[in-house]
Amino acid sequence: MREPVGHRVFRERRHARSARRHQHHFAAVPRHQRRRARLVQLAPIDAGEQRRHAGHAHPVVRARRPGLGKAPFPFSERAHHEPGGHALEQARSGPQLVLERRAVPRDAVHAGRDGAREVHQHTRTHTESTCVTPQQRHLLRFIDPQHRIHGASLSARELTCASMPHIVLVAPHFLENTNRYISAFAALDGVTLSVVSEDAANRLPDALRKRVAGHYQVRSVSDAAQLAGAIKVISRAVGNVDRLTGALEQLQLPMAEARALANVPGMKPHLARRFRDKDVMKDVLRARGVPVAASALVSSVAELRAFIDKVRLPVIVKPQAGVGSRGTHRIESAAALQAMIDAGMVPTHEHPLQAEQFIRAREFTCETVSIHGKAVWRSGTRYFPSPLEVLETPWVQYCVLLPKEVEAPWTDFAEVNDAALKTLWGPETDVAGTALTHMEWFLRDDGQMFVSEVGARPPGVQIMPLMSLAHEVDFIAKWAELISFDRWTDPGPRKWATGAAFLRGQGTRPHVTSVRGVEAAKARAGAALVELKVPSVGQQRASGYEGEGLALVRAPTTEGAKQALLAVIENLQIRY
Ligand SMILES: Nc1ncnc2c1ncn2[C@@H]1O[C@H](COP(=O)(O)OP(=O)(O)O)[C@@H](O)[C@H]1O
Ligand SMILES: [Mg+2]
């Protein structure tokens, strides 16, 4: 059934208007493509051409990637040959579809051994093309009424999902590390990437900007409504959004809320809260018998005291949804509790605090790759010392070690890790259950293991580069592929033991006053030292416990990596 021409023209104008309105958000889309995006209708094949192919003509409508030399045709095997002599091929990528309609001799389509190539050869001179945004795909039905290219074969689902996902990555600022994530998605063949950020598009390095289909600037990436608004604009101008993702912990909840608002598949708020809210997380895990510290969300000093009466000191008091150990306190005595209250750290109804029984233990991580809720790969590191000790003792240098061997206690923890993730995801593993998760866990001297917390996002504290170095594989690229295609290829065995040392100073000034022992650290660490970021004198003191400097090491043995870390932290001295 055809839509009346009047409606069609109206819709085309509306799309053109909306494309114009949103153009300034899409500086990343090359100008010629933006212009072409407003064209919708193909001119009919001219009469002469029809005559030339009289009796054996197959007009072909083919979608291809604009501006790219190689033209992947993931749908070509689904080419739709209609009895009336029409073939339809479709693919989706980039900011819009490019439709080519070609007059093809029937023989070429049917007889060619390599159909696609044959078609190309026979139709070079008769190609016409136009672009539509994926939103305009309903108009495909009206491309050429005479040749009846039926919309039925162009279901929205087919066009948007299958092999060409449109990923929206939330990247707050275009910093070096964030740009690595953008670059990883942009480099994936078959992915259309859009970016939402607080930075303007022109802050993106040129080479990267060219590979981003859409960009939308928001005032705050932590505001779900702004993210949802961005998604709506991006879907209108670039195409239906298949995934909304971002690597930072603080983004996980706003992104989940935005997914719910803008109807994007993936983790929704109630699930994200299980990962983000320490109280909800522990309740859900405890209910399913996963070992966690006794805990309570306390809204008053009285509730905190009641919790302490129950579990006894020491306890940990920390924010309900923290990050980087900020605001985490160990309370060992009644006097320490009083001091905390006097210092104004008081739980209230508006600002409750997470109180937990203190677990005296060594601290480890477990990185898990899951596809649709099924764990397919694991890795793990050890923290030296625990983040809490690092926080409590400012002069202590902080290290993360990824051993060469896959062995106990990490292998023993796999079962607990599995149970914890399955419990947190519940039955909703379809899209949400495809993730690289970062779990922190405790191992007590008596062998008891406890889940400390889980992030449904790539690990921080340099674990991504540590895994990349250990396997000689880019884990950011692997994460991008996992999120885009639910795909994970085994990175093989660890070739190295690796480690990170976070360099922190001693002293009371707000900035770095001296750095000593750099040459000695380099000499002692030797070839194991792969990266050394030395803080500069005058540099502002870092706010987080990761400090101002960083060393990454790798060695053929775990002991070698440990020694290299020691060589750095024992020799390099920073003073504030
Ligand atoms: N129940 C606990 N027992 C012992 N140490 C804890 C406990 N909870 C937190 N910690 C210490 O505090 C650090 C920060 O707490 P965590 O829950 O991981 O918060 P964040 O989200 O800030 O990383 C942990 O890495 C650990 O060293
Ligand atoms: Mg933590």
Residues in helix, % = 25-40%
CATH-derived architecture of the largest domain: 2-Layer Sandwich
Average the pLDDT over all residues and give the rounded result. Answer: 78
Describe the main β-sheet briefly.
Answer: 5 strands, antiparallel
- Within CATH, the superfamily of the largest domain carries the name ATP-grasp fold, B domain
Number of strands: 23
Q: Which stretches are poorly predicted, pLDDT < 50 over at least 5 residues?
A: 1-163
CATH class of the largest domain: Alpha Beta
CA gyration radius, whole angstroms: 28 Å
CATH topology (level 3) name of the largest domain: D-amino Acid Aminotransferase, Chain A, domain 1
What best-fitting shape do the alpha-carbon axes yield? Answer: globular
Number of helices: 20
Q: How far from one another are the termini?
A: 76 Å
Structural class: alpha+beta
Number of domains: 5
Bound molecules: adenosine-5'-diphosphate, magnesium ion
Q: Please give the order of strands in the largest beta sheet.
A: 15-16-19-22-21
Strand content: 15-25%
